[in-house]
Amino acid sequence: MTLGAVSLRTRLLVLILVPLIAISVIAGMWRFQSAKATAKEIFDGNLLAITLAVSRDITVSGGDALSPLTRDLLKTASGGPVFYHVNGPDGSFISGYAYPPRVPATEAAATAAPMLFDATHQGERIRASRLTEFVTIEGISGNSTVVVWQPVNAREAFANRIASQAIGIMGVLIATVFLVVWFGVRVGLRPLDDLQNAIALRHSEELRPIKRPVPQEVRQIVRTLNAVFEQVRESIASRDRFISDAAHQLRNPIAGIRALAESVRSARSGDEAKRRAQRVAEAAGHVSRLSEQLLALERLRSQTDKSGFKPTDINKVVEQSGARNASKVMDNGLNFVFEKSPAPLIVNCEPIMLGEAIENLVDNALVHGGERMTKIQLSVARANGSSILSVEDDGKGITQSDREIVFERFAQSEPGDGSGLGLAIVQEIVKQHEGRIRVLDGSLGSGARFEMALPLAPESSDA
To answer: pTM for this one?
Structure first.
């Protein structure tokens, strides 16, 4: 399990306590080494002091005995009992214990100062001090050697005791920090628990914004959640509008088809039945077109996948769409003109979708252009870093007030044979291409001009 998959409380505790424990372990190791060094310094100082005291007493007493103070020092020295051995100037044993520890071969003999060394004596590890001085005892002059030693168990126990105390204190501190952090995290995250409970109490259709006070660190999360609620609310509202519009727009045509179908059965002759059947077929075609446009519009509004978008020369898209619609325009006795851009204009588009937008604009001109319309023109140009695709006619045009509503669903500037969805579909397609569309006065002397501005692809905009 990764750290991101665990609870926030556990995550905070781990992130806080793991570094603290790691630092404590390092500090404990350092404290142990420091305690060992401190113990060594203390006990080595004692050994040196005792060595000098024994050497002084032997010199003063002529090798006879140690002073009471020195004997007390040997008994009460820190770290346990201390042993000593003294050789006279002639190398003979003078005082102390008969068998001193042997100096390791790696240690050089010192004559001017005491020498400290580690050794093993009678199976026990010891720390020893050795001092060699030139003395005169009972008329004999020469080097006298004093060796003082002490087992190292006591100093190691001393170091361990100091380190254990430090580690115990750090353990108590870590436990205290753990409890404080756990309690603090629990209290600090309580507003999140309240927020969670408040959200859990909501029913599935309650999408009002969350207005509960929350800590600053989670305000952005709440803002994002409110934004998601708003998007879901808009999506549901759009779905409801679609269902309502579809029901309203299809109710009458379907009822009309049913009535026409009933009239076919009551026709008095075969020719009359054929005429009525033809009217049924025309009405069914209208309903089919209306249904297709309703579904197309709703699909466009909810579409987020742009995998079919690719860099395309918009001249080719308009030329192909014009070729598909040319016969329909000319069958109505109109001129059909296409003016392409002199240079390729590359846009990131879905050609079929963009072609449908052009076809809807052409159909809109055919339905609403009026009887005096003689021409429909498609043109492509470049302006202000965008490709401008225009569909215009020389018909009766669109008033300024109607231009604000023509892109709404089922909106028509005047009653006609259209469904009122074509321009709404065009607007959604333009939005999908991150462009904009507007209605202008026609440049052909009259009529209306629908102008789509689509952003150029980078390689085209830099040209």
So the answer is: 0.48
